[in-house]
Design a protein that fits this description.
iron, DNA polymerase, domain 1, 2Fe-2S, metal ion binding, 5 strands, about 160 residues, alpha+beta, Ubiquitin-like (UB roll), metal-binding
Length: about 160
């Protein structure tokens, strides 16, 4: 049996350049979790349906379970570990905690990354906007009402910070 060829990649993860040697078929979710030790990114369905593995690639949400790590060499990634600022939790993280927008927490990292990008692009969303914005992330625990409340609360917190 021959060993699979590995490729040297550099990813700027949460503002820090990180290197890894990965097989061509290594998924970004696996590279983050197993090669870089960033276990905040969760893997749920492994088909891109649930959104648990969502990270920000150059600021845009992507499914890390559908993305090969070698294809993002040299790009910037933000994982759930990188959302908090130097002062603690981000407004989105604070809002999810305040509004009980999480229960078991498995889907939460994907929601946090998705909502961070969503509110950057739509800082004053309607209920319909929020429902559409989070429609690619599945939660089996909350029933979504508190997640929707958390998105609106995060928008309020972000508006307060920018005043």
């Amino acid at each position: 049996m021959t060993q699979e060829e590995r490729h040297e990649i550099t990813l700027v993860v949460n503002g820090v350049a990180r290197q890894a040697r990965v097989p061509a078929r290594r998924l970004l979710s696996d590279a983050l979790r197993h090669d870089l030790g960033l276990t905040g990114t969760h893997v749920g369905c492994e088909h891109g349906v649930c959104g648990c593995c969502t990270v920000l690639l150059d600021g845009e949400p992507v499914r890390s379970c559908l993305t090969f790590a070698v294809t993002v060499d040299g790009r910037e990634l933000t994982t759930v570990e990188g959302l908090a600022g130097p002062g603690g939790m981000s407004p989105v993280q604070r809002a999810f905690a305040e509004c009980h927008g999480l229960q078991c927490g498995f889907c939460t990292p994907g929601f946090l990354c998705t909502v961070t990008a969503f509110l950057r692009d739509n800082p004053s969303p309607t209920d319909d906007d929020v429902i559409e914005g989070i429609s690619g992330n599945l939660c089996r625990c909350t029933g979504y009402q508190n997640i929707v409340k958390a998105v609106h609360r995060a928008a309020e917190l972000m508006a307060e910070e920018s005043e």
